[in-house]
C-alpha cells in the first residue's frame, strides 16, 4: 500500500512516502512557513520515488495536538489531496508519533503548547506494540504527572520540546532519560498509519479532522499583556 504521510504540527515540516520500511522522508525546519513549503516537499518526495499523486493508496497526517496553524495546514493539504484523488485519509496523533520516533518502551511525550501549558500523553511499548496509557491532554507544567505508580519513574523517557521549554519538569517527575529534541516525524506517522489504512480505518476527506485538545484560538487582553502566545 503506497502511503503519503505529512507532519506540520511543530516548527518542522516533514513528508514521507513509501510502502513500508524503508520510508523516504523529507524534513525541514520551516518555522511558520509550512504553507509555503509543504506542497513543494510533497512534490519532491513523490518525484524521488518516481510516483505521481495518483499512485497513492492513502494519505496520513499528523492531526495534533500541536501548532494550531500548522495542524490546519497539514489537514487542509491532506483533505485537498484526498478529495482530488478519492483516497482515504488517516489522522495520527502527534504525541503518539513522538513515542514511535523516540523508540523507548515507556515514553512521556510533551510538546510546548505555549500559554504556559504543555500537550502531554504517555505510551508504553510491549511485544512490539505501542499502547496509550494516558490520553493527550493540555496541562500547566505543574499539573503533569506520570500515569500510574506501578511504572517506576526512572524507567520513563521524556520526549519532546516541552522538556526544553520547562527544564525542571523531568527532574520533578524523576524521569530516567530526557530527549527534548524528539519530535513527530512523517516517517513515524507513516509507520503508524500503514497498518491502520490497510485494515480499512481510513476516512473520507471530509471526516478526517484535527485533534486540537485545547480549543482556544485567541488570547484575552490580559494574557496578551502578560506575554502569552498561541502556537
Helix/strand layout:
Layout: E1 3-7, E2 12-18, E3 24-29, H1 34-48, E4 58-64, H2 68-85, E5 89-93, H3 94-102, E6 106-114, E7 117-126, E8 129-139, E9 157-159, H4 162-165, H5 168-173, E10 177-179, H6 186-198, H7 221-225
Parallel strand pairs: 1-4, 4-5, 6-9, 9-10
Antiparallel strand pairs: 1-2, 2-3, 6-7, 7-8
Helix pairs in contact: 1-2, 3-6
How would you portray this structure in words?
The chain is 30% helix and 29% strand. With 231 residues, it is of the alpha/beta class. The chain has 2 domains: 3-94 and 184-225, 2-Layer Sandwich (Nucleotidyltransferase, domain 5), CATH 3.30.420; 95-179, Nucleotidyltransferase, domain 5, CATH 3.30.420.40. The strands form 2 sheets. Strands 3-2-1-4-5 form a 5-stranded mixed β-sheet, sandwiched between helices. A 5-stranded mixed β-sheet has the order 8-7-6-9-10. The protein is globular. The two termini are 34 Å apart. The model has no long low-confidence stretch (mean pLDDT 92).
